[in-house]
Amino acid sequence: MSKEQLFVEEVIKWSEINQRKFPWRKESCPPYQILVAEILLQRTRTDTVVGFYKVFVERYPTVECLFDATIEDLEDELAPLGFHRRRARDLSGMSRMLVNEFKSEIPSDPSDLEKLPGVGQYIAGMVACLAYGVDSVVVDSNIIRVLSRVFDLPPTRDPRKDKDFTELLQDNFPRGRCRDFNLGLVDLGGLVCKPRNPNCCECPLSDICNFYMKRSEISLQ
Question: Which of 26, 60, 133, 154 is the most buried (most CB within 10 A)?
Answer without folding.
Answer: 60
